[in-house]
Design a protein that fits this description.
The chain is mainly α. It has five helices and two strands; from the N terminus they run H-E-H-H-H-E-H. The protein has helices spanning about 1-25, 30-35, 40-75, 80-135, 160-170; strands at about 25-30, 140-145. Strands 1-2 form a two-stranded parallel ribbon. Helix 4 (about 80-135) crosses helix 5.
Length: about 170
């Protein structure tokens, strides 16, 4: 009989201690910080910024060409026949359309490059988080800025450790 009472007491104490233990085994990571502050994230951001600069220069050159062409077209208006005016206007409109398409394609290309980078980093970082969580025996690791979590006490923040580990792994 005494044996049952001891077993029951151990079981009850185990249940009472479990929520405290479980709460300690939950951590979080600020993924935005990892993506922005990791060495790989900084390299990717520098690559994207370089690409943006080159594309902006290209778009600016094309815009300047359009402006020059428009000024020339306005000057020629007085000396052209109606048919010539229509032809030149159509040509100019086509160049404006091409310019707008270039700007849209550039925006799409930059967005794709950024999304591609984010997907790769997040995939790699999740592997790092999984390794750290397993090593440190965390049951659950949450994204710090996710909206579905309405309240959470500050628990262990693995962000710095994830950045450091990710940087070390990405150097290999």
């Amino acid at each position: 009989m005494n044996h049952r009472l001891v077993a029951f007491a151990v079981l009850v104490l185990g249940f009472l201690a479990a929520p405290v233990h479980a709460a300690e085994r939950i951590a979080y990571v600020d993924m935005a910080r990892v993506v922005n502050e990791s060495a790989a994230g900084k390299r990717a951001r520098a690559d994207i910024e370089g690409m943006v600069k080159l594309k902006q220069e290209q778009i600016s050159r094309e815009g300047q060409k359009l402006k020059t062409l428009q000024q020339a077209l306005e000057k020629e208006q007085l000396t052209l026949t109606d048919a010539q005016k229509r032809t030149k206007q159509r040509d100019f409109d086509k160049k404006v359309q091409d310019y707008q398409q270039l700007a849209q394609d550039t925006q799409r290309e930059i967005g794709q490059k950024d999304a591609e980078h984010s997907r790769k980093v997040i995939t790699d970082v999740r592997a790092v988080i999984r390794d750290i969580a397993q090593q440190e025996k965390f049951m659950l690791v949450l994204e710090k800025n996710d909206q579905p979590v309405l309240y959470a006490e500050d628990g262990p923040d693995l962000t710095d450790k994830v950045i450091k580990t990710y940087d070390a792994k990405s150097k290999r």
